[in-house]
C-alpha cells in the first residue's frame, strides 16, 4: 500500500466584512491567492470573515457584534479534521476578527486534538462537541456562572445519547506556523467595558488568556501603529518566557486595514504581507514563485507582493465619518505591552523585551514623502528591516531618541484633552437622541415658533423615515430652536476634536523632523478666548441669573427673549457639556502633565476601565435581563387574560347586560309617519320640530310609480290660513317636519368612576368590532373634590395628569427611579400615567388616549379591532406575580369620570 503524501494544510480566516466577493481584498485573500495549490502536497481552506452573510440582518449582527464566529471556527476545524493525517503540517492565517478566529481554532486543536468521523455530518457533530469541551475547559467567568447552564446542556445531550470522549481524537503535537494581522476582540459592544464585563462575569467571550502556546513552532503578529479606536486595540500575545525567534510581534505604519488590507490604495498593506509570507516560506510553505513561462503563466506572487510595497503609501483615517464615534485612544505600545485585563490567570501581557518597529515606519516618519507622525512609539525599541533585527541607533541615535521621547510625552497632554472632547461629543449626541423621550414638548410649539421653515424641513425628512422614529421627528419639529442649538453644539465639539487632532499631528511631525513644536497661533488663541468667554457668560446667566440679574448693569444682560431661551434650553446636561469642554481646553499643561503622570490617577483610571466598569455593566445587563423578563412575563399573562377580569354579566351574555354609561347619539333628519297615524313622531323621545305650523302626515303618491303600492305618508309642517272675505279657511306647507339631533344619556353606574390606582378597571361597557366610540374621561380637579388627596391625580405624592408627570421640579433621584422603572412599564415607549384603553380581557387591542394640548380632559375616538369589554388603566410599572401586580399602583391616587359615546346614528 502506497504511503500517504505528507501535506501542508493552510487555514485562513478573513476579517470582518471581508470575503472572496469583496472588491478590495485583504492580506488573507492575497496570501490565499499566492499559495501553490497545484499538487497534493498543499491544500488550503479560506473562510469569509464574520459579517459577510447574504442574509443582511445576520451580516449586520456579524459586523457589529461578531455574530457567526462559532460557525467559522467549526467550518475551519472540520476541514482540518477531515483532511489531516499524522505527519501533516498545519499553518494558520487571519486578520482582525479572523485572527481571533484562527487563534481560537489553534487553541481548539492543541486542547482537544482532531475529531474523527465517517460522514460530513458526523464530523460536524463531533466538532461541535469538541468545541463545547474546549470552551468548558478554557473559557470561564470569574464566578463560573456559566457552569450551571453547561451542566444542564450536557445533561440534556446525554439523555439524547450524545457522547464525547477526548481520548478518541487524533493528537496534534505542534503547529508549524501562525501568521496574523492585528488581532482584535471578536465580540464587539458599543463600549469596550461592556464586552469585558460580559466576558468576565456573565458569559466568557474573550480569549481565555494571552499565553502563547509553545507548541506553535513559529508565530508572526503584524500590528498597526496608528489606529486611534480603542475598540480595535490589538490582542497581543504575552512574550514572557517565549524565545524571540519563536514569536515576533512587529509594529507597522498605518491603521487597522492599512496593515491587514482592504483599502483601495493598499500599498502599505503589502509590507506586513511580504514579511509574513517570507517567514511562512522559511517554515516550508510554498507560494507561486516560479517565473512565468508560456507553459506556466502563473506570476511570481512573492515578487509581485514585493513590487507592490510602498512605505509612502496612502495612510487612511481610522476615525473618518461615523468612525469618529468609536472611542478615541491612540495606541501606546508601552501601555499595550504591560497590562493586566482581568483577575483570571494568564489574562495579562508583560512583554519586557524591546518592541519591534518595522524600518519602513521609522523611515517614513523621519524623511518620508508624506508627513507621518506616530505618537505611540516608545523611547527604546528594536527595528526590523529586510536584513533582520537591527538596533535602534542605526535609525535614531540615542540623543535624538531621548529628545523625541521627552517632547512626545508632552503631546500626550493634547491626547488627554481630545479624549475629554470625544466623551463630551458622545454625551451631546446621545442627549440629542434621548431628550425627545424624556421631555414633554407641546405640539403648539411647532406653530408658534419663528423657525417654522426648520420645522417644515424636519417634517419633510420625517416622511421618508420609518414610522418608529415619529417620536423624534415630532420632538424636533415642535422645538426646532432646541434641536438647532444642540446640533450646533455637536458640530462645534466635532470641530474642536478635529482641531486637536491636527495639532497633535502637526507637533508630532515637527518632533520627528527635528523641528521645534510651535505654540498656538494668534488666531487660534483669539478664537479660544472668545469661545471660552461665551461659554462662561452662558453658564453664568444660566446658573446665577436669579442672583446676578438684579446686580448686573443692563448692557451686560441680553434681551429678555435671549434670557428666556437660555433658561429654557441650557439644561443641566448642556451645562455639563460646556463645563467639561472648558476643562479640556483651559486646564494648564503643567496640571495635565502632573495629573497624567500621577500614579494614583493612572491606577484609578485603569481600575475603573478594567474592573469597576466591567462589573457595573455586567450587573446592569443582569438587572436588565430580569427587568425585561418581568415585562415579557407580564405581557404574556395580560395577553392570555390573567390581568383584566371581565364583568360577569358581560361575560355570560352581551345581549342581556346593560351598558350603562354609553350615550346613543342620533343625527337629525325627517320625522317618521307611523302607519295609520296622522301625526309624525321621532325616536328616543324627541319632539317633532317645525319652524312654523304643526306637524302632520299627508298622503302622497310616488312620482313615476306604476307597480305596487305607490302611496306613502309625508311628514310636513302645515300652517293654517284663516278664512278671509270670499276665501275659505285653508293651510300651506312650511316644509318637512324634522327630528333634532340628540344624545340619549344613560344613567351612570359605579363602574364609571375610574381610579388610577387600579391595575385594570372594568367599565361594564361592551364595544363592537368596527364601530366608532368617543371616550370622554374627565379627571377630578382639586376644586372638584372635598378631599383633594383622594381625588386629584398624584403619583407618590407628585401631581400628575393625563399627559403624564410634569417635567417641572423633577429631582435627580426621581429621574433615577424613573429610569430603573422604565423596563417594568406596561408600555415601554408611552409616558407614565398615560391612560390606556383596552378592548377585551385577552389579546392586545389597546389604544393610548392622548389629551388635547393644554387640557387634562380626554376626548378620544377609537375603533375597536375586536368585540369585547372596555378596560382602562394608566401606564405604570408592574410585577408579573399576582400579589405584586399593583405594587407600583399603590402610590397612585386620583379619579376621573368616564363616559362613552356611541357613533352618531342616522335618524
UniProtKB/TrEMBL annotation:
Boundaries of each T6SS Phospholipase effector Tle1-like catalytic domain copy? 7-279
* Transmembrane spans: 420-438, 482-501, 526-545, 565-587, 608-628
UniProt keyword annotations, A-Z: Membrane, Transmembrane, Transmembrane helix
Query: Does this entry carry the keyword Transit peptide?
Result: no
Give one Pfam family, short name only.
Answer: T6SS_Tle1-like_cat
Ranges for the region named Disordered are 786-807
User: Which InterPro entries does the record cross-reference, listed alphabetically?
Assistant: Tle1-like_cat
Name of the protein in its database record: T6SS Phospholipase effector Tle1-like catalytic domain-containing protein
Source organism phylogeny: Bacteria, Pseudomonadati, Pseudomonadota, Alphaproteobacteria, Hyphomicrobiales
Amino acid at each position: 500500500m502506497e504511503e500517504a503524501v505528507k501535506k501542508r494544510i493552510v487555514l485562513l480566516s478573513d476579517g470582518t466584512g471581508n470575503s472572496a466577493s469583496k472588491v478590495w481584498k485583504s492580506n488573507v485573500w492575497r496570501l490565499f491567492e499566492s499559495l501553490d495549490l497545484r499538487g497534493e502536497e498543499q491544500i488550503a481552506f479560506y473562510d469569509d470573515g464574520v459579517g459577510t452573510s447574504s442574509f443582511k440582518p445576520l451580516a449586520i449582527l456579524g459586523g457589529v457584534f461578531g455574530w457567526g464566529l462559532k460557525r467559522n471556527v467549526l467550518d475551519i476545524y472540520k476541514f482540518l479534521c477531515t483532511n489531516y493525517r499524522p505527519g501533516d503540517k498545519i499553518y494558520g492565517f487571519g486578520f482582525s476578527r479572523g485572527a481571533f478566529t484562527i487563534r481560537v481554532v489553534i487553541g481548539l486543536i492543541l486542547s482537544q486534538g482532531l475529531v474523527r468521523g465517517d460522514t460530513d455530518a458526523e464530523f460536524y457533530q463531533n466538532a461541535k462537541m469538541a468545541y463545547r469541551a474546549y470552551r468548558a475547559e478554557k473559557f470561564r467567568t470569574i464566578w463560573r456562572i456559566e457552569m450551571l447552564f453547561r451542566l444542564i446542556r450536557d445533561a440534556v445531550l446525554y439523555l439524547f445519547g450524545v457522547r464525547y470522549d477526548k481520548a478518541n481524537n487524533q493528537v496534534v503535537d505542534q503547529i508549524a506556523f501562525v501568521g496574523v494581522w492585528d488581532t482584535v476582540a471578536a465580540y464587539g459592544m458599543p463600549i469596550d467595558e461592556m464586552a469585558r464585563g460580559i466576558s468576565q462575569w456573565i458569559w466568557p467571550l474573550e480569549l481565555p488568556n494571552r499565553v502563547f502556546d509553545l507548541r506553535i513552532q513559529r508565530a508572526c503578529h503584524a500590528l498597526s501603529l496608528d489606529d486611534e479606536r480603542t475598540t480595535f486595540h490589538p490582542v497581543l500575545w504575552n512574550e514572557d518566557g517565549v524565545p524571540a525567534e519563536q514569536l515576533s510581534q512587529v509594529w507597522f505604519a498605518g491603521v487597522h486595514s492599512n496593515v491587514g488590507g482592504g483599502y483601495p490604495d493598499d500599498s502599505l498593506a503589502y509590507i506586513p504581507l511580504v514579511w509574513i509570507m517570507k517567514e511562512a516560506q522559511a517554515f516550508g510553505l510554498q507560494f507561486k514563485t516560479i517565473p512565468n513561462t508560456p507553459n506556466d503563466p502563473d506570476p511570481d506572487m512573492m515578487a509581485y507582493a514585493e513590487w507592490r510595497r510602498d512605505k509612502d503609501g496612502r495612510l487612511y483615517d481610522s476615525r473618518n465619518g461615523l468612525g469618529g464615534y468609536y472611542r478615541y485612544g491612540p495606541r501606546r505600545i508601552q501601555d499595550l505591552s504591560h497590562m493586566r485585563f482581568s483577575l483570571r490567570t494568564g489574562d495579562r501581557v508583560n512583554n519586557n523585551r524591546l518592541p519591534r518597529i518595522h524600518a519602513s515606519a521609522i523611515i517614513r516618519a523621519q524623511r518620508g514623502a508624506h508627513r507621518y507622525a506616530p505618537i505611540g512609539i516608545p523611547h527604546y525599541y528594536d527595528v526590523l528591516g529586510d536584513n533582520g533585527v537591527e538596533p535602534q541607533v542605526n535609525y535614531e541615535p540615542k540623543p535624538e531618541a531621548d529628545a523625541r521621547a521627552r517632547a512626545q510625552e508632552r503631546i500626550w497632554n493634547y491626547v488627554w484633552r481630545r479624549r475629554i472632547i470625544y466623551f463630551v461629543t458622545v454625551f451631546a449626541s446621545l442627549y440629542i437622541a434621548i431628550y425627545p423621550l424624556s421631555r414633554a414638548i407641546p405640539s403648539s410649539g411647532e406653530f408658534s415658533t419663528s423657525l417654522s421653515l426648520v420645522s417644515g424641513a424636519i417634517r419633510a425628512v420625517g416622511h421618508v423615515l420609518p414610522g418608529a422614529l415619529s417620536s423624534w421627528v415630532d420632538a424636533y419639529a415642535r422645538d426646532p430652536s432646541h434641536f438647532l442649538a444642540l446640533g450646533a453644539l455637536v458640530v462645534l465639539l466635532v470641530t474642536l476634536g478635529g482641531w486637536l487632532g491636527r495639532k497633535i499631528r502637526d507637533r508630532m511631525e515637527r518632533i520627528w523632523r527635528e523641528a521645534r513644536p510651535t505654540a498656538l497661533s494668534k488666531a487660534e488663541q483669539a478664537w479660544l478666548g472668545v469661545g471660552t468667554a461665551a461659554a462662561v457668560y452662558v453658564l453664568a446667566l444660566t446658573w446665577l441669573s436669579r442672583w446676578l440679574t438684579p446686580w448686573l448693569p443692563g448692557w451686560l444682560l441680553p434681551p429678555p427673549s435671549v434670557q428666556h431661551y437660555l433658561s429654557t434650553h441650557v439644561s443641566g446636561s448642556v451645562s455639563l457639556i460646556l463645563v467639561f469642554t472648558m476643562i479640556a481646553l483651559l486646564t494648564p499643561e503643567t496640571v495635565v502633565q502632573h495629573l497624567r503622570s500621577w500614579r494614583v490617577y493612572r491606577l484609578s483610571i485603569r481600575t475603573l476601565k478594567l474592573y469597576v466598569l466591567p462589573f457595573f455593566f455586567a450587573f446592569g445587563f443582569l438587572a436588565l435581563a430580569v427587568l425585561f423578563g418581568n415585562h415579557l412575563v407580564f405581557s404574556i399573562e395580560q395577553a392570555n387574560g390573567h390581568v383584566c377580569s371581565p364583568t360577569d354579566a358581560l361575560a355570560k351574555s352581551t345581549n342581556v347586560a346593560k351598558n350603562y354609561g354609553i350615550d346613543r347619539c342620533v343625527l337629525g333628519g325627517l320625522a317618521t309617519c307611523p302607519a295609520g297615524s296622522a301625526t309624525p313622531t321621532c325616536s328616543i323621545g324627541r319632539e317633532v320640530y317645525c319652524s312654523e305650523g304643526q306637524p302632520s302626515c299627508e298622503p302622497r303618491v310616488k312620482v313615476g310609480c306604476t307597480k305596487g303600492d305607490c302611496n306613502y305618508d309625508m311628514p310636513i309642517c302645515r300652517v293654517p290660513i284663516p278664512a278671509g272675505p270670499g276665501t275659505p279657511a285653508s293651510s300651506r306647507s312650511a316644509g318637512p317636519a324634522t327630528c333634532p339631533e340628540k344624545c340619549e344619556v344613560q344613567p351612570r353606574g359605579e363602574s364609571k368612576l375610574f381610579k388610577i390606582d387600579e391595575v385594570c378597571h372594568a367599565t361594564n361597557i361592551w364595544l363592537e368590532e368596527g364601530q366608532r366610540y368617543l371616550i370622554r374621561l374627565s379627571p377630578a380637579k382639586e376644586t372638584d373634590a372635598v378631599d383633594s388627596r383622594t381625588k386629584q391625580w398624584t403619583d407618590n405624592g407628585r401631581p400628575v395628569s393625563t399627559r403624564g408627570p410634569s417635567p417641572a421640579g423633577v429631582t435627580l433621584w426621581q429621574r433615577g427611579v424613573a429610569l430603573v422603572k422604565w423596563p417594568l412599564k406596561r408600555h415601554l415607549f408611552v409616558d407614565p400615567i398615560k391612560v390606556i384603553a383596552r378592548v377585551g380581557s385577552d389579546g392586545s387591542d389597546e389604544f393610548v388616549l392622548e389629551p388635547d394640548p393644554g387640557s387634562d380632559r380626554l376626548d378620544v375616538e377609537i375603533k375597536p379591532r375586536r368585540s369585547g369589554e372596555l378596560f382602562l388603566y394608566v401606564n405604570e410599572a408592574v410585577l408579573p406575580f399576582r400579589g405584586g401586580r399593583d405594587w407600583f399602583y399603590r402610590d397612585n391616587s386620583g379619579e376621573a369620570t368616564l363616559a362613552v359615546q356611541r357613533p352618531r346614528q342616522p335618524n
